[in-house]
Please model this.
Amino acid sequence: MFVTCLYAVLDPTSGRMRYANAGHDVPYAWSTAGPVELRARGMPLGLMPGMTYEEKETTLAPGQNVVLYSDGLVEAHNPQRAMFGFPRLKDLVGTHPGGGELIELLLRELDSFTGPNWEQEDDVTLVILQRQGGTVEGVSSAVNGAAAGERLLADFTVRSQPGNERLAMQQVADAVGELSLPPARLERLKTAVAEATMNAIEHGNENRAELPVAIRVTASEERVAVQVTDRGGERAIPENPETPDLEAKLAGLQKPRGWGLYVIKNMVDEMHVSSDSTHHTVELVLRLADRGEGAA
Model:
């Protein structure tokens, strides 16, 4: 009478994946910040006429994976009739980077949970989609100045809600901890990330909580880069913002706001902006060769 379905189109070169969901179990994408639910609204196929389906998009970084599964896994019961459940699956995905070994881990956990006399209630199907490669070359080819041979330090999203810029700032700080940036340089990067994320939440995604702000942190021998991406599309943002007129602002002749891009650009060594029809990205770059406390 009806069927659940997950449909995805993957570009294997860029890792970009567009997907829609017709009532199927939500896939999980593994990242260094933990498992991310790939949600898209839609009823099962055949359930009601004239249904429309939400289309979402994500980008898989090298080494990142997506876990696809049927409900026979999460709805399996143990002898006490407790269900395996989504939280258990999410926790397991978060503890393992993926690949075929993750399937083996999940099947072992299922066997341990259900016990030796389990009568299977539904099909148990698992597929792991993993992007190969140890660098993030080409991941952000739309961003000016993207460097080859970079390592992925973090890849996560935050909801577009006021205050989440602080969450993004702290996760970026944690991600770059291994680089031992001088305190002054680290604080500059944190300020730039917070400002860029705030702009993405407020102006790009218009404070719509369901729209994520995606943040990716990469590093090479020469630099560390943070990309902040919203759904603002082709909104015009200058790469060389004008210097704010402090006197005019204090006199009330200009709006008190409007410092964001100026602050961001002056907190980092490079700022690059790029847009396509649906996304806008600000890339923040610190050169690691300039590790002195006084470097801008």
Observations:
- The chain is about 25% helix and 25% strand.
- The mean pLDDT is 80.
- Residues 151-287 form a domain with the Heat Shock Protein 90 fold (CATH 3.30.565.10).
- The CA atoms of residues 45 and 144 lie 42 Å apart.
